[in-house]
Amino acid sequence: MGSVLEDPTLERHFKGHKDAVTCADFNPNCKQLASGSVDKSLMIWNLATKARAFRFVGHQDAITGVQFSPFGNLVATSSKDRTVRLWTPSMKGESTVFKAHTAAVRSVGFSHDGQRLVTASDDKSVKVWSVHRQCFVYSLNQHTNWVRCARFSPDGRLIVSCGDDRAVRLWDTSTKHCINCFTDYEGPATFVDFNSSGTCIASSGADSSLKIWDLRTNKLIQHYQVHSAGINSFSFHPSNNYLISGSSDSTVKILDLLEGRLIYTLRGHKGAVFTVAFSRAGDLFASGGADGQVLMWRTNFDTKSYQDILQQHSWRSTPDPPPHLTDIHPRGPHLHHPQPTAIQISPTVADTQSTNPHVIELGQAVHSTTLLNGRAHLNSHHSSGFPRCHVGSSRVEGWMREESAGRAGATAGSQSGASRRGRGRREEEDRGQTHPLEVLSGHPSSLDSTLRHIVQQLDILTQTVSVLEERLTLTEDKVKECLIHQTEILKDMRSSGERRSTESEGTDGSPVQFT
User: Is the pLDDT of residue 3 over 80?
Assistant: First the structure.
């Protein structure tokens, strides 16, 4: 196999996050890469050489998930601050806030048409949102522990979710019912997703296992145990022929799904790898980890033509149909091309194309959405994402470049506590940076506390409504069962009455006379 495939190569090395990188996703236009971090910021990296990067600030806690919309005009992020934000990836830095979960939000994902969002949370629920109307639609509540990940199927008819209850659940979006549940993990299920055709799902676990299920037969068709620690993320290649996974063992693994075996091990991160993602075209993939780095790789191993792939796999029992996962089961090494171990790639070049990009910092959200009685109300905080004052004329074009991490932290005496501007300035000083932009907010601290209290009450109300919805559904199901049971009893009584009437007739067909 080493002679058949081209090795992946490190293309870019992005530095800008101040803490672990937890999530990443490519723009469908193949021109941008988004990443989220424990440092509470969203970074948009332009893939063009020497292009500037954008940092979006607004979340109050670590970002846990990020995804571009199918058309690339929006970016969704989830956070431990219990919110989901929709960002416009532009210079204005605008975002809309969805606030309904009562605990940390672990993942966010768009539907295939970009009209829906699905979120997973530590409050044990999976929730679906309307992007256009910016409101809550429905929730799925059968998980019994934290929900780590949820994703729409490519056709939007199914949702798959997994969590710390060791269960992988499959939901029907039309009936809102759980139609299947896979529960054979030895620990929490950490990540789950559909392949590009929607015929299979893969799920990973903290027990370092990765499993692929065929949804048409509900059978496990592949099971990999190639990592030495828990798997945090994985991504299907658009062709469904390959899969990459990132693990706490500091490696990225590349699997050949047609042959059912490991083909590459990439060692580029210092510490756990928390996220991996293929680009929409499959020619690139990215990885991010505890070292705060975002590495972008060129795939290379998918460059062979389709006919060459068919010829390569001609040893299969049914070589004529297009190869797919349903007829490929876990296999050992290829008998005709043995190799002792996977190819180890240890990149030694920090960045092969450019220096660290200029970073433009964009401030707090322009809009926030608060759910009230099931409806979304949009509140404007600023008329513009960039206050015209506080922007030096000499810095409008250049902005501010990232300063080195070795700079000493600024003094803590700048704490004001009276506005969001003060909090934002403290964070910048902790990083040893100054900033040409300041985002102002006119809310005093007493009003902030009142608003927070109101939002907490709304969170509780929303959760209560979700529980009531679930109980109402269960009650309706029980009533249906009772009605079906009564109908069966009436049918039995009617049939038994007809039998007695038949037995009471004489042998000549005339009714028996009783005196």
Answer: no
